[in-house]
Amino acid sequence: MHSLPDFHLANLPTLEHVSDQEILGETDSILSALQLTSVNPFHYFDRYLRIESDWSKAIRRHLITLRFVKSLLIGRRYHFIRGENVTQLGCIIQMASRSLGHKFLRPANARISNRLEFDGQVPGELLGWKSAYEAFSRDENLSTDLADSRREAVDWIDAFRSRPERPIWSTNHKGLKFHPAKQIPLYTSLAAKRILKPLRQNPAMRKYDRSAGYVRMPGLEFIKQVIVPDIRSVIQRRRKLFRTSPDLNGKFIYFPLHYTPEISTMVYGYRYESQLDLIRNLAAYLPTGYQLMVKEHEPMLGRRPYAFYKSLERFYNVRFVPPRVSTFDLIRNSRGVAVITGTAGWEAFALGKPVIAFGDVFFRHFPNVLGLEVGPDMGHLIENYLENFKPDEKAISDSVAAYFACTRRSTLVDLGEDTEYANASEEADNFVMACEWALGLLGSESSVTGRPAASVS
Fold it and tell me: Model's pTM, two decimal places?
């Protein structure tokens, strides 16, 4: 067992008296050994670490984390590493593992409920998607698994187009109405968990959380993160901006706001986490006559100040769309959909609409999708893309079929949330089989991308 809290507490006292230059020198040395260029992106991937603005403290925390990762990865051999990338530590382990040739496996919830997807070797690509798509494109004799995936994709596309529905995980977190009768039990449950947390937490972990700045005053944090957003959302819903129905006629691009802070913008879309800046740039480079329709993400109701929405009025060709407006009405009436990593991009692709993707998301690599970075040429690229776009039904079908082929039936969440407890054994078997399948692909994808072959004990 390797504990970062214990490691942090053991290393910090010895580093407090070391000069900044020595700290930076060792940091560069470890980064080189891990085949990483800089620690800065990883700092900003972590919503807790980024609140540390003191240079001296931050670089020491960076070094402790790098020492920890070095002790885990250098000179060791693993059959595979099962990890996450929602923190600075997780992101460093993932990137360094791939560079050093360790098999790193990160399953995630797919865009379709009760399926698992796995990160590929290229950021944003799905493991196995490219080879499956090429097989479908060739239209040769398909294996049984690929033939089943094609049939599954065709059925899903037909069903989705006839009656598009949001994923279960999305509808479970919608919040268009405020229900006091439901909120009070929720407040009670959340408050009880926070009050009892110190009793359940390891003392060393608790000490680490305090020294690292992860712990604030529980009461104030509860009010700030739970109570205030709910009160703010009730007030915002009554404001004129949230009650106005937008005109969906004319030429417009639909941009759904993303939930934040979350991995979708902090890691996969970190370049555009400031969504207001992205909206400003996108609006400035739209073709003449186009508007940008910006819709709020339902679970974010009350979590953004009203001033955020009012600031959209500074841009003459930007219109705010209340969250009650159907995302599918917006997609169908739009001339295209722009996202960082949002599910609306996947849905728009399936519906045959132009899609502009800014973040490292899997459908960015789909045919007829414009993967874009903010820059001086983006206006020309957008205009040319929209003018020449033609939906390619075969490419859509092949892409979705490849998506089904590279995802696996399983659940990632706790049993009981979207899975019956009676099916626990079956779900465990599904998860194991999905992971075994992904591990079998990692070596072949590594050889294609030119990364080192995985080390196996």
Answer: 0.86
